[in-house]
Amino acid sequence: MKHKHMLTALTAASLIPMTMALGAEAENDLTAKEDSTIVEKILVTSRKRQESIMDVPDSITAFSTTTIENSGIDEVLDFINMTPNVTLRETFRAGVTFISMRGITTGQQGWAPVTYVVDGVQVGALDFINQGALTDIERIEVLKGPQGALYGAGAIAGAINIITKRPSNELEGGIKASYATGNDFKLSADMSGALIEDKLLFRLNAYHRDSDGNQETTDGEGINFEEQDTLRARLTYLGDSFTVDLKASYSDIHAGAAMQEIVTDPAFIDDFENANAPGPERGILGFEDRTFEEYSAKFEFDLSGGATLTSVTGLSILDQNLFGSISFQKPPAISLIGPVGGINDAFNDGFQDLTDNFEVFTQDVRITSSSDSRLRWMAGASYMNREAYNVLNIGGLFTGVVRDPNDMSVIPIQTDFKSDKATGIYAQLNYDISEQMELTIAGRYDENTFDTTQCTDINCSTIVQVLDKDGSLVNKLENTDSEFQPKVQLSYDWSDDLMTYVTYAEGFRFGFFNTGNLTKNESTTNYELGFKASLAEGQVRLTGAVFHIDYSDQQITSITTEAPFRLSTNIPEADIDGLELEGVAILSDNITLTAGFGYIDATINDGGGRTPGTPKVTGNLALEHSMVVSQNWDLYSRLDYRHQGDFVITDGVGDYLVPSKDYLNLRMSLKSLNYTIGIFANNLTDERQATDFGTVGFGYVRSFNTPRSVGIEASYQFY
Questions:
Q1: Count of alpha carbons within 13 Å of 309, Cβ hemisphere only?
Q2: Does residue 639 contact residue 623 with C-beta atoms inside 8 Å?
Q3: Smallest Cα–Cα separation from 57: which of 438, 606, 486?
């Protein structure tokens, strides 16, 4: 009942801007003020050229520098939890995050349902998305709906653009520190300036985190501990007709992993810390070591006629090794594969040792016309070469033997070498049919040739032959996927403050090999009708969209009790209907309300029930308040509310319903020109929710969200 009341309040609050709009012509406090505050104007680059967010006929949730700082966004989950119809569920390790956007979800070992782009460089695997801290960020753009016409086959559900802060000509910088529950200490610093004024600019950023973790085992050990060190450097050269932008970053992370816990019965999926689910028990405290190296070079040349030639080259290297329990119990224990070890063994528990390494090279080249002509165009080509290496060891497979985690002599049960070579050609035309009407036509052809080879050891000295689709034994499995993805949009400006649009688009995602099992590619056909409005003399911004998706061959992955312990399959046909409504309203000089509401009805055809991993309802409310405390200090407060609707998890054995939850975050801070001192509480009411659930040989295993965290923070900026 509590959730129903909160959801009703959320829906009503989401419609506040619309109610205000109906009375916009009448005299009221908002319209009567000649010098009233207006909603912050945001410029986005979602169509690979700079435009106002209100002029782009797509559903976009954007976060400016101000919003990122005021709401405390410092990881991917933070801004996703502020976006309707988008969810992220963390599971047994950081690289495997189940993203769902508009009902389109994640298949483990496959491609993400969204294209994730950082400063124009597309990341090459799902594992690259959740990299720990988001620092030194200028803007975040979440594009909902298929974006494959520009962003490629991975953008079947949408795209996420991360834009970092650019080097400045003037010397500036700052330092920020925080301390929170679980001895969670974070420290970040940045500096920017000119090596050669107006020509050669630099930016440096460093981040450190040391946390014991705020989720404890039954023995009181922190299970979600983390140590992270990150360094980023950027160098920009500004020529008369060209610019060069070079970036490099390195991250070293040691963090808790394999943090699942045992639940005795699906009826207790929502029980936490009681007799049915007492909390994580451990014979082995799991951990994961991750290192990231990322390098990129962007060149922009001004051509004659006002066009711009852009080249973006990226190289990303990710090494990951996980070691942890596979029984998720204290010793002696029964693992997925039977009895493991004894009282006197070095490890009195079944273990898993997982390596997932990637090396990805990307290249994108495009020519873009000027933005001030009636006909605007863009054409480009891209290439991606991805090499992946996967090893899985499980203790106890051979006569109950366990091993030291540093001893690689034990024969692994699964070793895979995978490669992808993907190419794309794309183009887009924007034509102003009249002063009010714009036609957009875009299309992209993508092709990926991918393969997998299985071996008996990490050096691949012996290849394990597997059956191909014709039943013949081969050393390597290969496949090629290709598709053309069109997009057609028509937008109409009814006035300077109201735009409507209609979109037809097709989405596509490559297939993948899950240890010899080919998971087919998937596709969507999308129809969308939307609007964007600025009301009450700029003090209210309201956007909305309704959409229908025909979904074919949805990729899903579930846990199994036999090697490779993951089963990837396809759902033949599903239908998705949904809507999104977002608004920002300046209620007074010092109070701002932000609201969002999303609804999705995603059903499997022929009576198959709900599609997995998709909440029917998501919603957000944020109330911001500021007041002058003294001549030099202001008090700033922000309350964020998130409604996460119930969703279904399937594991091939059963379907499990995860109940809905409501989350609150609170921040309060004193701010001056150079200093900020504040307090914060994330997940204020300590709501607990399962993020993954599945059958194992001895019961059910559950992943879960992060408990409440309370802390203090302080920062200093100089200009």
A1: 7
A2: yes
A3: 438
Domain span at residue 117? 2-718
Around Cβ 219, how many Cβ atoms within 10 Å?
11
Q: What is the rounded average pLDDT of the residues 75-89?
A: 95
Per DSSP (E only), the strands in 220-373 are: 226-238, 242-256, 261-263, 287-302, 308-325, 333-335, 338-340, 351-368
Radius of gyration of the chain (CA): 26
Kindly report, residue by residue over 265-311, the tens digit of the pLDDT: 899 999 987 777 888 888 778 899 999 999 999 999 999 888 999 99
Q: Which of 672, 684, 666 is nearest to 715 (CA)?
A: 672
Cis peptide before 615 (omega within 30 of 0): no
Cβ atoms of residues 84 and 579 within 8 Å: no
Alpha helices in 280-325 (DSSP H): none
CA distance 381 to 423: 8
Amino acid sitting at position 291: T
Give the C-alpha separation, 20 to 31, whole Å: 10
The H or E element that residue 713 is part of is strand 709-718
Q: Find the range with the poorest average confidence among 199-208, 219-228, 310-319, 342-351.
A: 342-351
The length of the chain in residues reads: 719
Burial letters for 280-311: b for 16+ Cβ neighbours within 10 Å, e otherwise? bbbbbbbbbbbebebebebbbeeeeeeebebe
Phi, psi of 17 (to 5 degrees): -60, -35
**Structural domain count of the chain:** 1
**Per-residue tokens: 524:** 């969507």
Angstrom CA distances, 349 to 92, 219, 273, 535, stand at 17, 16, 22, 62
In the block, residue with structure tokens 């639940």: 263
Of 620, 627, 626, 624, whose CA–CA distance to 593 is shortest?
624
Q: Pick the closest to residue 313 from 116, 119, 168, 125 (CA basis).
A: 119
Task: Identify the CATH number of the domain in which residue 349 sits.
Answer: 2.40.170.20
Share of the chain above pLDDT 90, in %: 66
Computed over every residue of the chain, the mean pLDDT equals 87
Spatial CB neighbours of 653, under 8 Å, sequence gap ≥ 6:
558, 694, 695
User: At 514, which amino acid appears?
Assistant: N
pTM recorded for the entire structure: 0.89
